[in-house]
Amino acid sequence: HLATSLPLPSERDHLRPRIDLVVFMIDIKSKYSLKNVETSLAHVDGSFFLGKVCFLVTGVGRVNACSIETSAICKLGKTYCSPVLFCELELEGIRVATAQRLLRMLQICAGHIPGVSALSFVSLMRNSDDD
Amino acid sequence: MDDTVAEYIRRTVLKIPRDEIKMMLQKWGFLSEAQLQTLNFHQMKDNISQEVVQLCEENSADIKQAAVLDIIYNHIYQNKRMWSVYQMKKSAEELEYFDIKDFKKKFKRRLRSALKNVTITFKEYEDNAIWIRVAWGTPYKKPNQYKPSYVVYHSQTPYVFVSASVLKSNMPLLCQALIVASNYHDIREMELRSHSLNSLKDIVFKRYSQNFQTCTTKPLQGGNVELENADIRIIQENRSEKERIHRLNEEVFGSGPQPKLEFAQYRLETMFKSDPKMDVLDKKEPFRCLVKFSSPHLLESLKSLAPAGMADAPLSPLLTCIPHKARNYFKIREKKGLFPGSFVSP
């Protein structure tokens, strides 16, 4: 399901399946994009932040066009205890690899991988934030 | 043939891309077809221009003919120049029959009475456009052929498009000559400038597709809205929002191509409104600020802002009023009186 912002339109509530993973896409070239994500985060139920939320930053290939600082995004990820992925959609290889990563995360969040749950992401994050 | 004329012709030919030289010389019509046949258009441009100058020498070209070649070049490459728009006002209401000979005579007489050293050249085109080239001199110097002004006048309209040379001091004289020749009584510069002459014409002649307020609330069919993927597994949650944005955009911009402008400039003379705690600019003076939007195609990029998710729809009327108000330079002052906020000054 693609949405431009949260909350989701209520008229489709009855048609929506269970949501296993929420990926917030931030375009590093647009401050408006970050602002939009920040306001949408307020509409997410707290239980999602146990591994079912992820930030995907796009457009990182164009170094000259960055409007948002990576420190701001990493801070966002830290505040919400959610992983931050960086990718460049214009390059097919990275696009495919990112899609595969997201798919793998989704499988775990949906409970399709025995022995691993979404809570694992939270503990993985704690370790990588040691600087 | 004068040396200065020869040099001018040589430099003008050098400006033309090699593949276009033959076509432009044919349009010029000063050299005969037989003479053109003798030219080798596959050699270096330097050599081509030398040969052209020699042929012109044979035909005894003078500055008048050279000026026509320059008009032809600038007519084809009109988008290299920056054009501004002037609007003339008539005092009398009756429409007078426009006589081109009379116009030319009056124009030349008016200019020459003020300044002896000018070169004035006219060329008419099929779309009723009269191109005027003026090379300016001083009472003591011959006209500078390398910095002429160009004027495009559509006789059935009160609009004149001017690409002034760097010598701006000649503008009042040029304006006077125009109103005298065309039987108007006043002329003013509009706040509208662009490189694309055709787009300026589109805007003032209202030839672009305009929006009309629609009263129907029927939503667009899904097929009209741009879909990134035909994959049916992707569900767009905000389809109705996307359609609303698309509809608003169509209402504001129309569905046709937009006139081509390169920038919009807003000069702010408003008060700085800050948080009282911030303690910035206590003095109640206007905060002077210039905001300039530039783009290879400003109006198309504004049109694509909301669908691309970069701005909320509807866009600020300060941006969307550009074609209707026929201006891309604005002065925004504080509105005094009943309504707080800013307004656009004429």
TrEMBL record, chain A:
Domain of life, per lineage: Eukaryota
Entries under InterPro entries matching the protein: Centromere_Cenp-M, P-loop_NTPase
Claim: S-adenosyl-L-methionine is one of the keywords in the record: no
Compartments in which it is found: Chromosome, Centromere; Nucleus
GO cellular component: chromosome, centromeric region; nucleus
Pfam family, one: CENP-M
Family annotation (PANTHER family): CENTROMERE PROTEIN M (PTHR34436)
Record-given protein name: Centromere protein M
Biological source species: Cettia cetti
TrEMBL record, chain B:
Protein name: CENPN protein
Localization, UniProt: Chromosome, Centromere; Nucleus
Annotated gene: Cenpn
UniProt key word Nucleus: yes
Nucleus keyword on record: yes
Family, as annotated: Belongs to the CENP-N/CHL4 family.
InterPro entries: CENP-NAC/CAD_complex (IPR052011), Chl4/mis15/CENP-N (IPR007902)
One Pfam match: CENP-N
Biological processes per GO annotation: CENP-A containing chromatin assembly; chromosome segregation
A GO CC term attached to the entry: nucleoplasm
Taxonomic superkingdom: Eukaryota
Alphabetized PANTHER family for the sequence: CENTROMERE PROTEIN N
Source organism of this protein record: Cettia cetti
Keyword terms: Centromere, Chromosome, Nucleus
Chief localization: nucleus
